[in-house]
Amino acid sequence: MDGSSLVMLGVILALLCASALFSGTETAFTAASRAFITRRAREGDRRAATLGRLSERKDRVVAAILVGNNLVNTTATALASALLIAWFGEGGVAYASLVMTLLLVVFSEVLPKTLALRSPDAAALRVVPVLSATMRLLGPAADLVNGVVRATLRLAGARPPEADRPGITEDELLGAIELHGMGQQGPADLAARQERGMLRGVLALDDMVVRDVMTHRSRIVGLHASAPPEAMLAKVLASPHARFPLWGRDGEEILGVVHARDVLRALHAAGGDPARLDLAAVAQPAALVIESRPLRDQLQDFRKAPVKMAMVLDEYGALKGIVTLEDIVEVVVGQIVQRGEAILGDLAEGGQVELRGDLRVRDINRELGWDLPEDEAATIGGLVAARQRGIPAVGTELAIGRYALRVLERRGLRIDRLAVRPKDQTEAGWMGPG
Predict the structure, then answer these.
(1) What are 113-122's contacts with CB under 8 Å, separation 24+?
(2) 247 closest CA partner among 264, 266, 228, 222
(3) In whole angstroms, how far apart are CA 381 and each of 351, 355, 369, 397?
(4) Model pTM?
(5) What is the pLDDT of residues 362-402, one digit of tens each?
(6) In the prediction, which pLDDT does 187 show?
(7) Sheet holding 243-248, edge to edge
(8) Distance separating alpha carbons of residues 245 and 187, to the nearest angstrom
């Protein structure tokens, strides 16, 4: 083997290494997390700042990398063909095609891309000098390529991609949330599930309205202005709540909101005599909101309002329920147990759970990791009634998705208690005695 052949082999090897560098750089650049890059740039990392600027024109950077990669691949293949033709004659073309295909695929494509995918964020920071040099040398060629591509798309009637499209959509963010903590075991898995629920709750605020979280009128503990002061004081002391609507005419007239703290102050001012209490005098004005009001807007109002409770009205002005700051916070953090009751009923053997009919489907899914439909009704009792197209009798059994449900108790026309379990845990005879 003469000296010129050795030089040519060295050039081919160098071109293969350059091809591998281009391939790994492309994979690291396209797979790097935009959130990671932004955070590192804000922390003062100059490489991340450069990477962020390059990411604003990702199509231009990718085009430059592909131009460079194809240039070195084509040159290496041409040199290998010339060398093997000199060694083996006309058959050298076939040998060059086979050998270069193997080398390019294994060592210049699969291997560097696999290494880059193992840690794309760190790899992207390491290849910033390569990206900067590539853009200086091949940026004009990339602009030319992109111009030809856009012109071709226009001729074909297709719309060219927007260079300034958002870096991540809500669906992609939700998908990333679902991957958070996957594969953890024990306490780490429980913590990850709680964190996923909180992150989903933050995103859900934009899509929810007051009606989705309000406490229905039938569950409100209110004070009637016409009741004796002693009776109202007894109701305040017996209730676990801190705020109470004060109303007249059986709830048709909303007079204000009374805080338990103000009741105690008024009682002290009255010398401890309940008969002298005047709750209307200590009631604060009640905020009124429409049930279709966006939840995020109501949260902003509560942040500035002295009273963290609002009366919810329908489009006709009739009282539908109440909403509090805690109701909105629970969308993010989950049920806040502060009223002397647990969110769920007793967990029996085999995965059966007894639930109150007024529990929200969203809260049940969150606490148990279930996937009951949330778009048909707000509460589990309402979901059963919607599926039955009416109020089911006690003992009614039905299946919703992969869950079996049974009505255990009714109170008037309201479903008061149900038993639910996943179908794969349902035994013969279903749940046995109710």
Answers:
(1) 113/23, 113/24, 113/26, 113/27, 115/24, 116/24, 116/25, 116/27, 116/28, 116/31, 117/27, 117/31, 120/27, 120/28, 120/31, 120/32, 120/33, 121/32, 121/33, 121/36, 121/37
(2) 222
(3) 19, 9, 19, 13
(4) 0.64
(5) 888 877 878 899 888 888 999 999 999 999 999 999 999 88
(6) 80
(7) 223-224, 243-248, 253-259
(8) 41
Helix H or strand E segment including 331: helix 325-333
Query: Helix H segments across 32-105?
Result: 34-42, 46-55, 58-88, 92-105
Give the model's pLDDT for residue 349: 54
Residue 396, CB-side half-sphere exposure with 13 Å CA sphere: 19
* Rounded distance between C-alpha atoms, residue 281 and residue 377, angstroms: 39
The pLDDT of residue 340: 46
Cα 153 → chain centroid? 35
Cβ atoms within 10 A of the Cβ of 199, count? 17
C-alpha span between 238 and 46 (Å, rounded): 62
Query: 3-state SS of 149-215?
Result: HHHHHHHCCCCCCCCCCCCCCHHHHHHHHHHCCCCCCCHHHHHHHHHHHHHHHHHHHHHCEHHHCCE
Least confident of 24-38, 194-208, 316-330: 194-208
* % of the chain exceeding 90 in pLDDT: 44
**Residue 276: pLDDT over 70:** yes
Query: Would the pLDDT of 149 be above 90?
Result: no
The phi and psi torsions of 389 (rounded to 5 degrees) equal 60, 40
Using CA atoms, how far apart are residues 393 and 434, in angstroms rounded to an integer?
13
Q: Are strands 223-224 and 397-400 parallel, antiparallel or unpaired?
A: unpaired
pLDDT value at 122 more than 70: yes
Token representation of residue 67: 């131009």
Say how far apart CA 370 and CA 362 lie, in whole Å: 9
Interval 345-359 mean pLDDT: 72
Closest CA to 257 of 237, 231, 285: 285
Rounded to an integer, the average pLDDT of 113-118 is: 93
Cα distances (angstroms) measured from residue 199 to each of 52, 174, 304:
25, 9, 24
> pLDDT class for 116, splitting at 50, 70, 90?
very high
How far is the C-alpha of 294 from the C-alpha of 289, rounded, in Å? Answer: 10
Rounded CA-CA distance 356/108 in Å is: 62
Radius of gyration, alpha carbons of the chain: 34
Confirm if 8 and 83 have CB atoms less than 8 A apart. Answer: yes
